[in-house]
């Protein structure tokens, strides 16, 4: 073996001996406690009854905002989660409203975008009932009977609330250690 080959093998050996991480990356989506991962959102139900303004403030105090519904899959996931986590909840505030809007257009306070997906409850919308949107379900025999759908309410009415946060996305990596290994999560921006 020539001295060039020997040095090459020595460098390769030292490099491999210093290897402490394995390139095994798995994407992980998590929510901060006490929020729950529901579809592509982190949600938290509050049993407190607040008006829309207080509800918005309550969510913001937790680094969140009132829930918004952008599509049918989000609505289905919210319905399933609410029936499992709070089966007797009749209604709860969303971030939807038409405050200051004279054209009866609704916007999601949480995103600032016009609400395009509006799954209305029976006999809704009734703009004269108020400016804020809640998800509402009928109760039959003391149990939530239907899917939650949007209903217009006066913003000063009291209701329970659901707050939402954006999930944290991170990459999970396995790090080799002498005689063991550790799994760590690295937050992605």
UniProtKB/TrEMBL annotation:
List, for all copies, the residue spans of the domain called C-type lectin: 38-164
The family database entries (PROSITE patterns) matched by this protein are listed as: C_TYPE_LECTIN_2 (PS50041)
Q: Which InterPro entries match?
A: C-type_lectin-like (IPR001304), C-type_lectin-like/link_sf (IPR016186), CTDL_fold (IPR016187)
Sorted alphabetically, the keyword list is: Signal
Top-rank lineage group of the source organism: Eukaryota
Name the Pfam families on file.
Answer: Lectin_C (PF00059)
What's the protein called, per UniProt?
A: GH25235
Native species of this protein? Answer: Drosophila grimshawi
Q: Which gene does this sequence derive from?
A: Dgri\GH25235
């Amino acid at each position: 073996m020539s001295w060039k080959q020997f040095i090459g093998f020595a460098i390769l050996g030292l490099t491999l001996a210093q290897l402490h991480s394995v390139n095994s990356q798995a994407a992980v989506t998590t929510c901060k406690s006490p929020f729950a991962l529901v579809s592509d959102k982190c949600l938290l139900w509050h049993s407190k009854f607040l008006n829309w303004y207080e509800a918005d403030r309550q969510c913001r105090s937790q680094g969140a905002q009132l829930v918004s519904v952008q599509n049918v899959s989000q609505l289905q996931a919210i319905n399933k989660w609410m029936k499992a986590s709070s089966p007797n909840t009749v209604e709860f505030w969303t971030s939807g409203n038409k405050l200051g809007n004279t054209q009866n257009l609704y916007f999601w306070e949480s995103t600032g975008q016009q609400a395009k997906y509006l799954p209305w409850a029976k006999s809704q919308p009734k703009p004269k009932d108020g400016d804020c949107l809640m998800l509402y379900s009928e109760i039959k025999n003391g149990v939530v009977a239907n899917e939650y759908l949007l209903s217009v309410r006066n913003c000063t009415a009291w209701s329970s609330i659901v707050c939402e946060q954006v999930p944290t996305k991170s990459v999970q990596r396995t790090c080799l250690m002498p005689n063991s290994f550790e799994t760590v999560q690295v937050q992605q921006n």
